């Protein structure tokens, strides 16, 4: 009898050891979809994430990157993450306004001063933490980290040194309410058109100017057909690393922590790439003959605040409080 007990005990110990080994050897293949192409900063940060995860997990976490909208546009990929069909993607905080109207406040012109302010709003205020909790609980979207993705500026065929210089300026903007309002409330004439038509429209003076992050102005060579760049800083773009909460919960705690640390590392790389690029591009444009101006942004900010009330109409309650929280995070 004693021999049988010893044998059973040995078998039990062996089973526990084997189970532990199986658990330790589990690997997790994560799929990461993005709109950005392989030549863009987002992809370089994704490669940094891949290297970090695979090294720190000793190969237990493998990351496959799908750039160039291979899996769809940003909204389609968010939907895929929600259904746990995709593990990771990128999204601006304001983009969540489609599902949570109060999130759209983060896309308003001059709602934040800079990326540090925006990051504090998302991660340190009740407003931002409440958004994150609802995104996780209702949509399976966990924000693993937040990165800087450039700031929108204004180019033109005449100098913009104050708000009054915007008056009557025919300004190409996308079909987005917040950017249409940027033009309208600063006194410009908003002129939506397809992005592919912008260069020719600027070259022929069909429009007087356009607005985009510096990286886009460079990539599209708008500096070739615009003599002036105003640092209007009207919209600060973020990019959030959005993880499937369901997938995250499937992972053991040690790999969860490696994933979170890896996302923070990628966001830091992502942010620094944009900061470095923007600093270099201002100098590049000046060397190309572009005159760079820095208008008084208080005038612009006050003009755009007049647009904010209409965005509160889609928020059932608490809109003014959210604005106060955003402001207090400055």
Features:
TRAP_DctP; signal; 330 residues; DctP_fam; alpha/beta; D-Maltodextrin-Binding Protein, domain 2; two-stranded parallel ribbon; globular
Describe the protein.
The protein has a single domain (28-328), classed as Bacterial extracellular solute-binding protein, family 7 (D-Maltodextrin-Binding Protein, domain 2). The chain has 330 residues and is α/β, with parallel strands linked by helices. Strands 3, 4, 5, 6, 7, 8 and 9 form a seven-stranded mixed sheet that branches. It has a two-stranded parallel ribbon with strand order 1-2. 48% of the residues lie in helices and 20% in strands. β1, α2 (41-56) and β2 form a beta-alpha-beta unit. The protein is built from 13 helices and nine strands. It has helices at 2-25, 41-56, 74-82, 115-124, 126-139, 177-185, 198-203, 214-219, 245-250, 253-287, 297-305, 308-311, 319-328; strands at residues 28-33, 61-66, 88-91, 141-156, 170-173, 189-192, 209-213, 228-244, 291-293. It is globular, with a radius of gyration of 24 Å. The longest helix has 35 residues, at 253-287.
């Amino acid at each position: 009898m004693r021999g049988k007990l010893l044998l059973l005990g040995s078998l039990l110990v062996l089973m526990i050891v084997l189970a532990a080994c199986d658990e330790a050897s589990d690997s997790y293949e994560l799929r990461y979809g993005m709109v950005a192409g392989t030549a863009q900063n987002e992809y370089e940060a994704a490669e940094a994430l891949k290297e970090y995860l695979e090294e720190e997990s000793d190969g237990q976490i493998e990351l496959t990157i799908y750039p160039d909208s291979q899996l769809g546009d940003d909204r389609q990929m968010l939907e895929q993450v929600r259904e746990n069909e995709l593990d990771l993607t990128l999204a601006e905080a304001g983009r969540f306004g489609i599902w949570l109207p109060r999130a759209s406040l983060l896309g308003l012109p001059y709602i934040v001063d800079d990326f540090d302010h925006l990051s504090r709003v998302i991660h340190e205020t009740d407003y931002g933490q409440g958004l994150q909790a609802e995104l996780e609980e209702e949509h399976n979207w966990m924000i693993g980290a937040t990165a800087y993705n450039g700031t929108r500026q204004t180019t033109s065929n005449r100098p913009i040194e104050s708000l009054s210089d915007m008056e009557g300026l025919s300004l190409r903007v996308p079909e987005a309410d917040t950017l249409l309002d940027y033009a309208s409330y600063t006194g410009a004439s908003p002129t939506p058109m397809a992005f592919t038509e912008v260069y020719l429209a600027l070259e022929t003076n069909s429009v007087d100017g356009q607005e985009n992050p510096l990286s886009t102005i460079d990539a599209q060579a708008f500096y070739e057909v615009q003599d002036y760049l105003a640092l209007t800083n009207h919209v600060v773009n973020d990019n959030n690393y959005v993880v499937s909460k369901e997938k995250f919960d499937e992972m053991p705690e040690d790999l969860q922590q490696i994933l979170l640390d890896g996302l923070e590392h990628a966001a830091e790389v992502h942010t620094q790439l944009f900061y470095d690029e923007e600093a270099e591009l201002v100098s590049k444009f000046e060397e190309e003959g572009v005159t760079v101006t820095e208008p008084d942004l208080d005038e612009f900010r006050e003009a755009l605040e007049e647009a904010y009330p209409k965005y509160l109409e889609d928020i059932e309650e608490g809109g003014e409080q959210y604005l106060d929280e955003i402001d207090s995070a400055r």
